[in-house]
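A reminder from the course coordinator: this example appears on the midterm review sheet, so study it carefully.

Given structure:
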């Protein structure tokens, strides 16, 4: 996997990671981001929104931890689906840890040395605000 991301970066592409706990390990995220082989990362809990196939499957199989009609609970602050091998708090802790990759000195340094324009500065500031917001949200939900 890392070779693919490294190849993309050497060709001036900007790989973005979308994290699913089952597919990508936390250590991989840190390594790929720290080496600069991926430039952005998104880590979220699975949310079965009403009207989707996942929502219907969750209803049929009894996967909901909450009332599936209580749409206020679908705000991504806590998992609404049961996880057989993790507590909801653990899922949220893992998401929080993944976002903290952006706060590592190695990632920050690599990102700062890539800034070339005022547009890059504005992009970096917007990104930093979003990351800090995610970290704050996950800290509040734990």
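Designed residues:
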């Amino acid at each position: 996997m890392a070779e693919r991301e490294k190849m993309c970066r050497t060709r001036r592409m900007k790989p973005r990671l979308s994290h699913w706990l089952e597919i990508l390990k936390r250590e991989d995220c840190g390594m790929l981001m720290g080496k600069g082989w991926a430039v952005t990362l998104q880590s979220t809990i699975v949310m079965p929104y009403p009207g989707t196939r996942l929502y219907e499957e969750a209803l049929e199989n009894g996967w909901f931890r909450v009332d599936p009609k209580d749409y206020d609970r679908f705000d991504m602050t806590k998992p609404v689906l049961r996880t057989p091998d993790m507590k909801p708090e653990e899922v949220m802790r893992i998401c929080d840890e993944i976002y903290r990759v952006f706060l590592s000195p190695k990632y920050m340094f690599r990102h700062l040395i890539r800034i070339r324009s005022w547009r890059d500065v504005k992009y970096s500031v917007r990104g930093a605000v979003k990351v800090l917001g995610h970290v704050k949200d996950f800290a509040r939900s734990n």
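The chain has two domains: 2-45+86-141, 47-80. The beta strands are 16-19, 40-43.
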